[in-house]
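Please decode residue identities from the backbone states below.
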């Protein structure tokens, strides 16, 4: 099955020989692709709605993979049993929803060594949540597809007591090594891996964001209301973070 560039990037994060659960599977493209390519031995295509599951089931049948890809109605991770999967994909939704799904499957965390996340929004909240809950990001990349920017994260769980042991190897949650509070905020907003690797797509995104922030500031600069002044201060701070991120990548 030919995947879009975004879905192909997500699939590339899945380790060889995985048993995969795809949460919010929609059409079931990722599980089908992973099994067809021999990357996954078995997959569960899960969604909270019947409509997407009907589409996924039809595509699975067309591919002749009924014995390898199971379709399951589930609100997030609630219907995933322990030891059924060793890699979970959660993609194609907002960051708040991804956090909610992860929290709902808290009892599964220790038994799943690989998580592949691709939030469409609120990436800073996702990165904060991962740090607070002792996950680490071992790989992150950004792609552009049809004018939109997407980040994909490979995430694993590490006991809090062991974080100090893995930090020297360059894991992205070693935030203290970055120094100032501002630098930590920038890593939440834009991703430490992306910044350190000088990801060209992130740089393009930063330049576009800078222009958008300046345009908004020009639009409200003529207003003297108190709310406009507060918004202007917020925008100035966002622009400062953006510029510091760009400086860090040069």
């Amino acid at each position: 099955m030919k995947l879009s560039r975004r879905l192909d990037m997500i699939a590339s994060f899945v380790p060889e020989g995985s048993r995969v659960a795809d949460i919010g599977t929609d059409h079931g493209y990722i599980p089908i692709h992973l099994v067809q390519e021999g990357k996954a031995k078995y997959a569960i295509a899960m969604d909270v709605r019947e409509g997407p599951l009907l589409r996924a089931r039809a595509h699975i049948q067309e591919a002749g993979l009924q014995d390898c890809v199971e379709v399951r109605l589930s609100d997030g991770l609630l219907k995933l049993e322990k030891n059924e999967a060793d890699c979970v994909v959660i993609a194609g939704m907002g960051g708040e929803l991804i956090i909610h799904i992860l929290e709902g499957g808290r009892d599964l965390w220790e038994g799943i060594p690989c998580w592949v996340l691709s939030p469409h929004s609120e990436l800073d909240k996702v990165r904060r949540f991962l740090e607070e809950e002792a996950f680490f990001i071992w790989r992150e990349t950004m792609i552009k597809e049809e004018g939109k920017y997407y980040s994909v994260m490979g995430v694993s769980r590490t006991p809090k007591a062991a974080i100090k042991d893995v930090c020297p190897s360059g894991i992205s949650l070693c935030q203290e090594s970055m120094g100032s509070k501002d630098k930590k905020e920038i890593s939440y907003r834009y991703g430490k891996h992306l910044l350190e690797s000088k990801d060209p797509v992130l740089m393009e995104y930063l330049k576009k964001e800078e222009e958008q922030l300046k345009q908004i500031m020009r639009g409200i600069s003529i207003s003297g209301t108190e709310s406009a002044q507060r918004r202007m201060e917020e925008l100035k701070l966002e622009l400062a973070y953006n510029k510091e991120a760009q400086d860090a990548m040069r």
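Observation: DSSP finds ten helices and seven strands in the chain.
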